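go over my protein:
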Amino acid sequence: MKTKKIFTAVLITSLTLAATISVAAETLTSTKDLDETEVTARILGENEPGEVSYVVSIPDKIDFGTLVKPADAGDSFVEIPYTVRAEKITGLDDAAHQNWYVRVQVRDKTYEMDEQEQFYLSQTTASYPEVSTGKHTLLYTICLGDSNANVEDNTSFKNEHGFNIAFFHKTGDEVTGKFRLNQHQLYGKDLNEYAGEYSGSAVFHTSIVHSATQN
Protein backbone atom coordinates (compact mmCIF):
# COMPACT_ATOMS: atom_id res chain seq x y z
CA MET A 1 0.00 0.00 0.00
CA LYS A 2 1.12 3.54 -0.68
CA THR A 3 0.84 5.97 2.20
CA LYS A 4 0.22 9.66 2.13
CA LYS A 5 1.52 11.40 5.24
CA ILE A 6 0.54 14.93 6.12
CA PHE A 7 1.49 17.08 9.11
CA THR A 8 -0.29 20.41 9.21
CA ALA A 9 -1.31 23.04 11.71
CA VAL A 10 -4.18 24.27 9.59
CA LEU A 11 -7.21 22.82 7.86
CA ILE A 12 -5.69 21.89 4.54
CA THR A 13 -2.56 20.21 3.34
CA SER A 14 0.04 22.91 2.89
CA LEU A 15 3.39 23.18 1.17
CA THR A 16 5.99 25.58 2.45
CA LEU A 17 8.51 26.94 -0.06
CA ALA A 18 11.85 28.28 1.07
CA ALA A 19 13.96 30.60 -1.04
CA THR A 20 16.91 32.92 -0.76
CA ILE A 21 17.54 36.28 -2.38
CA SER A 22 20.95 37.08 -3.77
CA VAL A 23 22.20 40.46 -4.91
CA ALA A 24 24.75 40.82 -7.70
CA ALA A 25 27.83 43.02 -7.33
CA GLU A 26 26.29 46.37 -8.15
CA THR A 27 25.43 49.59 -6.43
CA LEU A 28 22.25 49.47 -4.36
CA THR A 29 20.10 52.55 -4.02
CA SER A 30 17.15 53.32 -1.82
CA THR A 31 14.81 52.91 -4.79
CA LYS A 32 15.94 49.49 -5.97
CA ASP A 33 13.30 46.74 -5.89
CA LEU A 34 14.40 43.24 -4.95
CA ASP A 35 12.24 40.15 -5.27
CA GLU A 36 8.74 39.77 -3.86
CA THR A 37 8.23 38.05 -0.50
CA GLU A 38 4.84 36.62 0.36
CA VAL A 39 3.66 37.58 3.84
CA THR A 40 0.80 35.52 5.29
CA ALA A 41 -1.18 35.05 8.49
CA ARG A 42 -3.88 32.70 9.65
CA ILE A 43 -6.73 32.85 12.16
CA LEU A 44 -8.50 29.68 13.28
CA GLY A 45 -12.18 29.64 14.20
CA GLU A 46 -13.22 28.89 17.75
CA ASN A 47 -13.77 25.17 17.17
CA GLU A 48 -11.38 24.54 14.31
CA PRO A 49 -8.76 21.88 14.97
CA GLY A 50 -5.23 22.98 15.62
CA GLU A 51 -2.37 20.64 14.79
CA VAL A 52 -3.63 17.56 12.98
CA SER A 53 -1.58 14.73 11.52
CA TYR A 54 -2.72 11.73 9.57
CA VAL A 55 -1.49 8.87 7.42
CA VAL A 56 -3.83 7.52 4.73
CA SER A 57 -2.97 4.41 2.72
CA ILE A 58 -4.14 4.11 -0.89
CA PRO A 59 -3.70 1.38 -3.53
CA ASP A 60 -0.16 1.30 -4.87
CA LYS A 61 -1.22 -0.10 -8.25
CA ILE A 62 -4.33 -1.46 -9.93
CA ASP A 63 -3.68 -4.02 -12.67
CA PHE A 64 -6.60 -5.18 -14.82
CA GLY A 65 -4.34 -7.84 -16.33
CA THR A 66 -4.76 -9.13 -19.87
CA LEU A 67 -8.10 -8.13 -21.32
CA VAL A 68 -10.05 -10.31 -23.75
CA LYS A 69 -12.69 -9.56 -26.35
CA PRO A 70 -16.11 -10.88 -25.28
CA ALA A 71 -17.76 -13.50 -27.47
CA ASP A 72 -21.09 -11.64 -27.41
CA ALA A 73 -22.41 -8.13 -26.89
CA GLY A 74 -23.10 -8.60 -23.18
CA ASP A 75 -21.20 -7.03 -20.30
CA SER A 76 -17.90 -8.60 -19.30
CA PHE A 77 -16.44 -6.87 -16.25
CA VAL A 78 -12.99 -7.13 -14.74
CA GLU A 79 -13.11 -6.03 -11.10
CA ILE A 80 -10.14 -5.29 -8.84
CA PRO A 81 -10.82 -4.64 -5.12
CA TYR A 82 -9.19 -1.78 -3.27
CA THR A 83 -8.97 -0.39 0.27
CA VAL A 84 -8.31 3.17 1.43
CA ARG A 85 -7.52 3.30 5.14
CA ALA A 86 -6.71 5.84 7.84
CA GLU A 87 -3.53 4.34 9.26
CA LYS A 88 -3.21 7.15 11.79
CA ILE A 89 -5.20 10.26 12.75
CA THR A 90 -4.35 12.52 15.68
CA GLY A 91 -5.88 15.84 16.67
CA LEU A 92 -9.54 15.05 15.98
CA ASP A 93 -10.24 12.79 18.95
CA ASP A 94 -11.69 15.29 21.42
CA ALA A 95 -15.36 16.23 21.78
CA ALA A 96 -14.85 19.73 20.37
CA HIS A 97 -13.75 18.32 17.01
CA GLN A 98 -16.15 15.40 16.62
CA ASN A 99 -17.54 16.92 13.40
CA TRP A 100 -14.18 17.29 11.66
CA TYR A 101 -12.96 14.66 9.22
CA VAL A 102 -10.13 13.73 6.89
CA ARG A 103 -11.80 13.74 3.50
CA VAL A 104 -10.46 11.54 0.71
CA GLN A 105 -11.29 12.31 -2.91
CA VAL A 106 -10.28 10.71 -6.19
CA ARG A 107 -10.08 11.87 -9.79
CA ASP A 108 -8.50 10.90 -13.07
CA LYS A 109 -5.17 12.60 -13.80
CA THR A 110 -6.83 14.44 -16.69
CA TYR A 111 -9.86 15.50 -14.61
CA GLU A 112 -11.48 18.84 -15.33
CA MET A 113 -14.60 19.54 -13.32
CA ASP A 114 -17.76 19.49 -15.47
CA GLU A 115 -15.60 18.89 -18.56
CA GLN A 116 -13.61 15.65 -18.30
CA GLU A 117 -14.67 13.59 -15.29
CA GLN A 118 -14.28 9.99 -16.51
CA PHE A 119 -11.53 7.56 -15.61
CA TYR A 120 -9.69 5.96 -18.48
CA LEU A 121 -6.61 4.07 -19.65
CA SER A 122 -4.64 5.29 -22.64
CA GLN A 123 -2.73 3.08 -25.06
CA THR A 124 0.97 3.61 -24.40
CA THR A 125 2.38 1.09 -26.89
CA ALA A 126 0.86 -0.69 -29.87
CA SER A 127 1.70 -4.34 -30.47
CA TYR A 128 1.04 -3.95 -34.20
CA PRO A 129 1.89 -0.35 -35.11
CA GLU A 130 1.44 -1.11 -38.80
CA VAL A 131 -2.32 -1.49 -38.25
CA SER A 132 -2.87 0.61 -35.11
CA THR A 133 -3.07 4.33 -34.50
CA GLY A 134 -1.79 3.72 -30.96
CA LYS A 135 -4.25 6.26 -29.57
CA HIS A 136 -7.04 4.10 -28.18
CA THR A 137 -8.55 4.56 -24.72
CA LEU A 138 -10.55 2.32 -22.40
CA LEU A 139 -12.90 3.65 -19.74
CA TYR A 140 -13.03 2.24 -16.22
CA THR A 141 -14.96 3.20 -13.11
CA ILE A 142 -14.37 3.31 -9.36
CA CYS A 143 -17.12 1.92 -7.14
CA LEU A 144 -17.68 2.09 -3.38
CA GLY A 145 -18.39 -1.00 -1.31
CA ASP A 146 -20.32 -3.80 -3.02
CA SER A 147 -22.28 -1.35 -5.13
CA ASN A 148 -21.75 -1.09 -8.87
CA ALA A 149 -22.56 2.64 -8.77
CA ASN A 150 -19.73 4.79 -10.06
CA VAL A 151 -18.33 7.53 -7.85
CA GLU A 152 -18.56 9.98 -10.76
CA ASP A 153 -22.33 9.44 -10.97
CA ASN A 154 -22.80 11.17 -7.59
CA THR A 155 -22.25 14.65 -8.96
CA SER A 156 -23.47 16.38 -5.77
CA PHE A 157 -20.25 15.33 -4.03
CA LYS A 158 -17.46 16.67 -6.20
CA ASN A 159 -15.24 19.70 -6.52
CA GLU A 160 -12.01 20.65 -8.27
CA HIS A 161 -10.20 17.81 -6.46
CA GLY A 162 -12.54 15.08 -7.69
CA PHE A 163 -15.18 12.87 -6.09
CA ASN A 164 -15.66 12.14 -2.38
CA ILE A 165 -15.00 8.54 -1.42
CA ALA A 166 -14.35 8.68 2.34
CA PHE A 167 -14.59 10.77 5.50
CA PHE A 168 -12.24 9.41 8.19
CA HIS A 169 -12.41 10.52 11.81
CA LYS A 170 -10.20 8.08 13.66
CA THR A 171 -7.36 5.66 13.14
CA GLY A 172 -8.56 2.43 11.53
CA ASP A 173 -11.43 3.93 9.54
CA GLU A 174 -11.46 2.53 6.03
CA VAL A 175 -13.46 2.29 2.84
CA THR A 176 -13.42 -0.55 0.33
CA GLY A 177 -14.62 -0.85 -3.23
CA LYS A 178 -13.52 -1.91 -6.67
CA PHE A 179 -12.01 -0.63 -9.87
CA ARG A 180 -14.24 -1.88 -12.69
CA LEU A 181 -13.55 -2.18 -16.43
CA ASN A 182 -16.07 -3.50 -18.94
CA GLN A 183 -14.40 -5.56 -21.67
CA HIS A 184 -17.51 -4.94 -23.76
CA GLN A 185 -15.52 -1.98 -25.09
CA LEU A 186 -13.54 -4.51 -27.16
CA TYR A 187 -16.56 -6.27 -28.63
CA GLY A 188 -16.54 -6.14 -32.41
CA LYS A 189 -13.14 -4.46 -32.48
CA ASP A 190 -10.03 -5.56 -34.40
CA LEU A 191 -7.76 -6.79 -31.60
CA ASN A 192 -4.64 -6.24 -33.69
CA GLU A 193 -5.52 -2.55 -33.76
CA TYR A 194 -6.20 -2.38 -30.02
CA ALA A 195 -3.43 -4.72 -28.85
CA GLY A 196 -0.75 -3.20 -26.65
CA GLU A 197 -0.13 -1.71 -23.22
CA TYR A 198 -2.53 0.68 -21.51
CA SER A 199 -2.07 2.84 -18.44
CA GLY A 200 -3.65 5.70 -16.53
CA SER A 201 -3.56 7.44 -13.16
CA ALA A 202 -6.11 7.88 -10.40
CA VAL A 203 -5.17 10.81 -8.17
CA PHE A 204 -6.17 10.74 -4.50
CA HIS A 205 -6.54 14.00 -2.56
CA THR A 206 -6.95 14.54 1.19
CA SER A 207 -8.10 17.52 3.24
CA ILE A 208 -9.54 18.30 6.66
CA VAL A 209 -13.17 19.43 6.53
CA HIS A 210 -16.16 20.06 8.76
CA SER A 211 -19.24 17.91 8.27
CA ALA A 212 -21.26 21.00 7.37
CA THR A 213 -19.00 21.68 4.38
CA GLN A 214 -18.39 18.21 3.03
CA ASN A 215 -18.43 19.26 -0.62
Q: What stands out?
A: The longest helix spans residues 191-194. Confidence is low (pLDDT under 50) at residues 4-38. The first strand starts at residue 2 and ends at 8.
